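Lab notebook page, bench 4
Experiment: in silico fold of construct C2
Operator: M.H.
Input chain length: 410 residues
Purpose: comparison with the prior construct
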Amino acid sequence: MMHLFINASAASAGGGLTYIRNVVPHLATRSDTCTTILLAPDLRCEFEETKSLRLLEFPGSSYGSFRRTWHEQRLVPQLIRQTGADILLSVGNFATLRSPVPQVLLSRNALYVSNDFSRDLIARRHLRLYLDTKIRSRLAKYSIAKADCTIAPSESFARELRHWKGCPIRALHHGFDRAQFFSATKPDYALVRLLERRSNALRILFVSHYNYYRNFETLFRALPLIRRLIGRDVQLVLTCKLEGTPGGYRTVKAAALARDLGVESNLLQLGPVAYNQLQHVYRASDIYVTPAYTETFAHPLVEAMACGLPIVASDLPVHREICRDAALYFGRFSPHELAHRIAQLATSQDLSTNLSQKGDVRSRDFSWAHHVDEILNIARGLLAARDGISGIAHPEVCIGLEDRERSKAV
């Protein structure tokens, strides 16, 4: 039986959190694999140990960034040896530099390769975050060199990483578990009260915690234009709040822009919503939108498609890869183009229904069970390559998603 060690100590928000919450239940039921997972204490309490799943708490979660990284680099190799693990899966963009076993690295942070993000930070004069990102970018690049196999969550991002680092990168889509996502049939009472419609406003949803690359400003600038184009009010539903500095991102300018544009009253700021309650937020909305100017996968797009929401997305290769023809696209920094795409949907029921139907079909292509199977196959391939066992392809020479789909077509 293969023993997999997963370093998920940095999974605390966004895609990392979604990843662990969906992957762990599948690993817990495996009879062919024993898994040990290192988690932050507040995430550890969400899961129960099984015969094939052991959970460890990372003791350095409260440390500062540098101390935390130093502690993690020392601790993980020790834990791997103590548990007798065969292979390491690092899910937080950074490799364990002295791993005693073969290592699979999940690289899923587009900010380290995004020129738009660097320019954005300079324009905002957020130099501390700019320098921090540059340092982390170097470490992420070095991590790819140290890992035995690096996996990106989309072919679009894999291409960026190949160009950035100049080495093979495997593309493997993240998944979607319909049964888990739709498990909570009853919405929370407080959420129901917040989502009550008090007008005939067009309800647009954007699921994201606040950060710069999600491009909230373009979305806010589009709201007055949308109102004029459709001739009725608009409500933008956010799963965050424009206050404080979440994740080190300053919300002051975004909040001020909403006030200056006169759209502050058009924002419904829910704050963080429990994962099992998200379906009710999607279903209470009319259109899903994402104006992000860089991305690696975007789980909310799959969730929105599964909930039957028509989508308007910024025109990024990764958004087209995930949604295909189940969305309308706009130039990522154009509020006018965004407003016109939303107006198209708001004024055409046929178009909206067509995108909803295509989205439901497309959402069924994503599977966490398949993702876990592929991760374990990659791990076995690395172990076979290490042990000199023939007949199992090394992960770096496995075909990517585009090649696989091309071969199927032939």
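Observations: The chain has a mean pLDDT of 91. The longest strand covers residues 2-8.
Next step: discuss at group meeting.
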